[in-house]
Amino acid sequence: MIEILNPAEVARAREAGALVADILQAMKSRSTVGTNLLDIDDWTRSMINEAGGQSCYVDYAPSFGRGPFGHYICTGVNDAVLHGRPHDYTLADGDLLSLDLAVIKNGIAADSAISFIVGESRPAESVALIGATERALAAGIAAARPGARIGDISHAIGSVLGEAGYPVNTQFGGHGIGSTMHQDPHVPNSGRPGRGFKLRPGLLLALEPWVMADTAELITDTDGWTLKSATGCRTAHSEHTIAITSNGAEILTLPTRA
């Protein structure tokens, strides 16, 4: 299903996007050395409920997961890049933490992810990984305009990741979003320009470049959910929900405060 939202629905998407962004920034500020991933999940639950939102994750049970996800935010540490299931782990200095959050508010979903380094350490590999995903995300957003095609976005993202020297996995990537979290079209993180669905105003997309330092192969953790690099290398993930407008792409998942 591909939804095209009307202006009133896009306005509601802005509210959902701001909520997601603000929660992610709050969780980033609280994610210090000694913080437990289960505390991050609990803080996220409280903020969603206080804002009148609805989690997209708690009851989420797709074919690639083992039963309902059962948590409110994805927490990927170091080699865990996607669908990181919160567990009893205490963050250490230098950990690379990826937080991914999707929330529905007033009937519309928004989805975003950030990666950052915990504590004072700044490992060069982690800095490079995060920077590549952020540049790739910016390139994908710049390519998203009316009349362009999904392949143009995928090509822009993949070009940045490839130039940075990272293998690209296209099994999981960006997606359409609207009244539900995951919709068509699929937006691979590499592709050919001029191919795929033609973008039009009212289309919402969640663009999410992610990379692993030295492999494109994923493995599934014993929790049945968390996807990790097959080699144990570090990973990073950046994501925004955007709305296609007559003037280009509007980022909906920007925080309302610094």
Task: Please give a quick description of this structure.
The chain is α+β, with helices and mostly antiparallel strands and about 260 residues long. The chain is built from 4 helices and 14 strands.
Give the C-level CATH assignment: Alpha Beta
Second-tier CATH architecture: Alpha-Beta Complex
SSE ordering: HHEEEEEHHEEEEEEEEE
The count of β-strands is 14
Radius of gyration: 17 Å
* Basic shape: globular
The helix-and-strand class reads: alpha+beta
- Characterize the biggest β-sheet: 5 strands, antiparallel
Q: Tally the helices.
A: 4
Give the end-to-end Cα distance, rounded to a whole number of Å: 35 Å
Summarize the structure in words.
The mean pLDDT is 97. With 258 residues, the chain is α+β, with helices and mostly antiparallel strands. It has a single domain (7-250), classed as Creatine Amidinohydrolase (Alpha-Beta Complex), CATH 3.90.230.10. The longest helix has 24 residues, at 7-30. It contains four helices and 14 strands. Helix 3 packs antiparallel against helix 4 (150-163). The chain has helices at 7-30, 37-50, 124-143, 150-163, and strands spanning 54-55, 74-77, 80-82, 96-105, 108-117, 174-176, 183-187, 204-207, 210-212, 218-220, 227-229, 235-237, 240-245, 248-251.
